[in-house]
Amino acid sequence: MAKMMSVKPVQQTKNAVDRLFQFMNLMAWTCLLIGVVTSLWNITHFSDTNMTLMVGIGFLIGSVFIYTSGAALHLLSHKLEQLEDRAEDRS
Q1: Residue 6: inside a domain, yes or no?
Q2: Number of C-alpha atoms within 13 angstroms, CB side, residue 54?
Q3: HEC assignment per residue over the chain
């Protein structure tokens, strides 16, 4: 009985983490695209006073952080799922 009750929340959590990973992946690619476009908008004026270049570089760096955070969350959830499966197998 307890085993049946614990399966549903784990499955809901897995689905939520998968949806969050997909959303973060989409946001990371969107930020990357925005960063490339804004960086190349006025590339001829290559200095720290070029606001579009600085914003574009910020979006490029932000996209890497978003993707890395989403990938770490996804990997962590898979690792916890494997540990839960091993614990169930032992009992």
Answers
A1: no
A2: 5
A3: CHHHHHHHHHHHHHHHHHHHHHHHHHHHHHHHHHHHHHHHHCCCCCCCCCHHHHHHHHHHHHHHHHHHHHHHHHHHHHHHHHHHHHHHHHC
CB 24 within 8 A of CB 70: yes
Range of the domain at 75: 24-86
Task: Determine, yes or no, domain membership for 11.
Answer: no
Query: Alpha-carbon distance 10 to 29, whole Å?
Result: 29
pLDDT tens digit sequence for 57-70: 999 999 999 999 99
In-domain check, residue 17 = no
pLDDT at 1 over 50: no
